[in-house]
Amino acid sequence: MWTVLFHVNPTTIALALGLCLAAALAFAWWRRPDPARFRGPMRKLLAAAAVVYLAVLVAPIGAAESYGNSERRVVWDPMLSFQDIPGVGEHADSYTEFGQRLDDGRAVRYAPAGVPLEERFPEDEDDLFVQDGPGDTLVVTDSEGGTPTPGDVALAERTVTENLAWIAEYDAQLEAEGPWGTTGGVALQERTLNTLLFVPIGVVAFFAFGSWPARVLFGPALSLAVEAAQWALPWGRLADTGDLMVNSVGAVVGTLLAAGAVGVVAVVRPGPSGAPDPEAGSPEEEPVRPARG
User: Fold this and answer.
1) pTM for the full model?
2) Are 223 and 251 contacting, i.e. CB atoms less than 8 angstroms apart?
3) Residues with Cβ < 8 Å from 78, sequence gap 6 or more?
4) Other C-beta atoms lying within 10 Å of the C-beta of residue 58
5) Which comes out higher in pLDDT, residue 121 or 204?
């Protein structure tokens, strides 16, 4: 199911929002003669959708092996999951220092400014430390700051050069793909998909209820129920306030799409004698009774 994330891009986002808008326009057209009567079927549709969302989003897909074993936890920082998005988190600095274990058990540690002697521990006595030198050269030292054998110097330089070349190629690939690429992960696609999933809920909620608080709050309430269930059920999946936030944004977007669709239909298909749409909140006039002679 996670393979869907590889298809989330501006084109599919526009297509999904277009379908939601088309559905909102259709609902707005059908409800125009009698909005109050139209709410009944829409509430049934909303209830069915809520059941499906709960069943799919709470189901332990791929989590059977963690049944009763993983720890329940709540991610309280809603912005934490955004740190995995390339360009948002600390990716640009994640490879400025690195180490690699050699076949003989020693390690080559690279830092542009070098590893201070006080940070070189006794257990590192056989390791090689590399830092940038003048120009494009590399300086190799041992754990005590001395110069290793020529063979070790050549080995350390080759190891660091190969790693730096791989990092440069990786960064170039990220830049070429742009924000919607998958080389650096699919965190952006996951956040976007979680937003889009709740746009239809917001659309249907608009037509299912007559009050704005109910329309706006149904989506966030459903998302909260999903996160609570994910936390409470035996397979111990975590509850993420980041999911709650993006789900709520998606539901509000859906509600606004539906409101816009109602406005468009009210212009294209006005009521009898230009009567205002009941959803606009205009007070109804008291019918005029004929005077008795």
Assistant:
1) 0.76
2) yes
3) 240, 241, 242, 244, 245
4) 18
5) 204
